[in-house]
Write a structure and sequence with these properties.
The chain is an alpha/beta fold. The chain has helices at 21-26, 39-43, 64-74, 79-94, 111-117, 123-133, 156-163, 191-200, and strands spanning 52-58, 103-106, 136-137, 142-144, 167-169, 179-187, 207-215. Strands 1-7-6-2-3 form a 5-stranded parallel β-sheet, sandwiched between helices. A two-stranded antiparallel sheet has the order 4-5. α7 packs parallel to α8. The radius of gyration is 17 Å and the shape is globular.
């Protein structure tokens, strides 16, 4: 089978990779950066201390971004994470992101879900960000303690309630006094990232930044 575009299913031609030229051009990049306040920053205000947050793409219920993330998450297309992470990592550097991140930490899956899927869909994206930021990729210190049902299908209240103590940190010394970039695939209400950040903030003298592949604008929540 010839390679096809993950955005529109059109056949890819020489020089095109994962997305056709048209879909690459139409990709809804947020243009958010780590210097100016944005809508994602405001998601966490009054909830958990986040130094700065940003996201690569806008998510909508239909379209290129949904197709990409569906293929990444459910169709064993882990290389999409590499593709997006490499692209966003370059953007972050061009924007002059200068937080001097020490450690990049992906939001973890529960071990049972990780075993079933075979990979964490966030890892490849996070690894590429770590590479561009010259930071250490660490995916063995933040642990998910319960195999809850998909967070995106819950109300915000139930997410917040189930998020209590849902994540814990082991080998604290790896993260003490570090600047941490916490990475996830998509942020909607921010409940998952909030729970992860709350667990990380039990560590002394840390700063937490957030980066995600995609962001669901408030009107879609």
């Amino acid at each position: 089978m010839p390679p096809i575009c993950f955005g529109c299913n059109a056949q890819l031609f020489r020089g095109e990779h994962l997305l056709c030229t048209v879909c690459r051009y139409d990709l809804p990049i947020t243009d958010y950066n780590f210097d100016e306040e944005n809508e994602i920053d405001r998601v966490f205000y009054g909830r958990v201390p986040i130094k700065k947050a940003s996201s690569f793409l806008f998510f909508s219920k239909i379209g290129i971004v949904k197709n990409l993330l569906h293929q990444l998450k459910y169709k064993n297309q882990e290389h999409i994470g590499n593709f997006l992470g490499d692209w966003y990592g370059e953007i972050m550097l061009k924007q002059g992101f200068s937080a001097a991140i020490d450690v990049v930490v992906p939001v973890p899956l529960h071990p049972k879900k990780h075993k079933k899927r075979g990979y964490n869909q966030v890892d490849a994206f996070a690894k590429q960000l770590a590479k561009h930021l010259e930071a250490k990729f660490v995916n063995d210190v933040l642990i998910k303690t319960a195999n809850t049902r998909t967070q995106s299908k819950k109300s915000r209240l139930s997410r917040l309630q189930s998020g209590q103590n849902l994540y814990k940190v082991k080998e604290v010394e790896k993260l003490r006094s570090k600047k941490i970039l916490l990475v996830d695939d998509i942020v909607t209400t921010g409940a998952t990232l909030e729970a992860c950040a709350a667990a990380l903030h039990k560590i002394e003298n840390i700063e937490i930044y957030v980066a995600t592949m995609a962001f669901v604008p408030k009107l879609m929540n």
